[in-house]
Design brief:
Blueprint: H1 13-24, H2 28-31, H3 39-46, H4 65-76, H5 80-87, H6 91-98, H7 105-112
């Protein structure tokens, strides 16, 4: 099973910021000052509730499989709990795979199934 192909150019600004923040290990509150934003403003941009133009967007390069799965889950509107239950695994393991701490192969199969595209 293959996950849908998503490249950086397919991402919204909010999704790019999410990937950048997760790679840095920042909370939204910690990430905001790096982009000269308040926490509330940053949160709205990352969640797609506010559109802005950044003159300098953090470079994120190519997406890893676990990051594509994160984007697919966010776009689906499903929570980690809902996805974990549907996949038949614990929330803990789903979260570990989505963070890239363990192999995301199960998530790749999960998001590669036709009914989730």
């Amino acid at each position: 099973m293959r996950i849908p192909e998503i490249t950086v150019s397919d991402l919204t600004l909010g999704e790019k910021l999410l990937i950048w923040r997760k790679r840095k290990g920042f909370t939204q509150k910690e990430a905001a000052p790096y982009l000269s934003m308040s926490w509330n403003f940053y949160k709205e941009v990352e969640n797609g509730k506010r559109e802005i133009r950044l003159t300098e967007i953090p470079f994120i390069g190519e997406l890893e499989a676990n990051e594509i799965c994160l984007i697919l889950r966010k776009r689906s509107g499903w929570t980690i709990n809902e996805c974990a239950e549907d996949a038949g695994i614990s929330r803990y393991w789903y979260n570990m795979m989505e963070k890239g701490k363990v192999s995301p192969n199960l998530l790749v199969r999960y998001w590669g199934e036709d009914e989730r595209k």
